[in-house]
Amino acid sequence: MSFALFVFGIGVGWAAEESVAHAPQLIQDPSIEWVSVLGGQGEMGSDSSRALSDEQPRHKIAIQAFEMSKSEVTFQQYNACVQVGICSPAKVDDDRCTVSVPHKRSGKTKRVPLPENLRVPNMPVVCVDWYQARTFAKWAGGRLPSEAEWEYAARSGDYYFEYSDDMIWSEANSGGQAHGVCELKANAHGLCDMIGNVSEWVADMWHDNYVGAPTDGRVWPMEGGPNHGFFVERGGSYTRIINNVSQPRRRQKVHGSVIASSLGFRIVKEAP
């Protein structure tokens, strides 16, 4: 059985958030292939008896057209931002996810091993926290998708769309590691690896359910409260069993300073 490898840092996210606010938005395009997603009406969440409480209630959304990166951002693309001094490096050292501050409980710095092939240039970048992902997105002239935009794109315009085995890297076929982007079949929008391979940061802070959620596709912030600082992770990863990742509605709660060997991101920008 494979497990996602998570590392928690204390204070990393908050320092990064402040530095990002003052970072120049130098628009570069590190060979990102953009896919146009037409705006329209859709639905999000689920009222199924099998749905988890955080996936409820099912509700209508109206999404404006946008463009989304065809694949998850790769190590090669991310490193282009590092090389010009805008992004901080992925927390990888000697093929391990690393964090430079002590774990909040043990007081020890954590270093966890990565799959052997994870640092090949076309592999999705991992071991980056939410704030690092946001910095890259701004540098590349985009932003992280809202949760509503992400689910709308993942469903390919069809609420009942389900991903087939030939579209998903999961525990069943991944060999316990991530794979190069776009090796499997894309969805109807032409987007690769929306489900499986590595899960993805989105812009929204975590809410325990969709009561009061925006219906216009915008990012849903959180002001204070126990969930402040926690963000939404979407798409599942190569560590999950197929039944747990094949549904586009699935979501996870993750602190913004977490890094993991199975967590990356993709970006969006406004339609021209």
Molecular shape = globular
User: What class, by secondary structure content?
Assistant: alpha+beta
Give me the count of strands: 13
| Share of β-strand residues | 15-25%
Runs with pLDDT <50, length 5+? 1-26
CATH topology: paralog of FGE (formylglycine-generating enzyme)
N-to-C span: 45 Å
Salient structural properties:
single chain, paralog of FGE (formylglycine-generating enzyme), 13 strands, three-stranded antiparallel beta sheet, alpha+beta, 272 residues, four-stranded mixed beta sheet, disordered N terminus
Q: What can you tell me about this protein's structure?
A:
- This protein has helices at residues 12-21, 75-83, 130-139, 147-154, 242-245, and strands spanning 6-7, 34-37, 40-44, 59-63, 66-69, 96-98, 111-113, 199-205, 230-234, 251-255, 259-260, 263-265, 268-270.
- It is an alpha+beta fold.
- The chain has one domain (6-21, 32-270): Alpha-Beta Complex (paralog of FGE (formylglycine-generating enzyme)), CATH 3.90.1580.
- α1 (12-21) runs parallel beside α3.
- Mean pLDDT is 82; it is low at 1-26.
Which SSEs are present, and which pair or pack?
Layout: E1 6-7, H1 12-21, E2 34-37, E3 40-44, E4 59-63, E5 66-69, H2 75-83, E6 96-98, E7 111-113, H3 130-139, H4 147-154, E8 199-205, E9 230-234, H5 242-245, E10 251-255, E11 259-260, E12 263-265, E13 268-270
Parallel strand pairs: 8-12
Antiparallel strand pairs: 1-11, 2-5, 3-4, 5-13, 6-7, 8-9, 9-10
Helix pairs in contact: 1-3
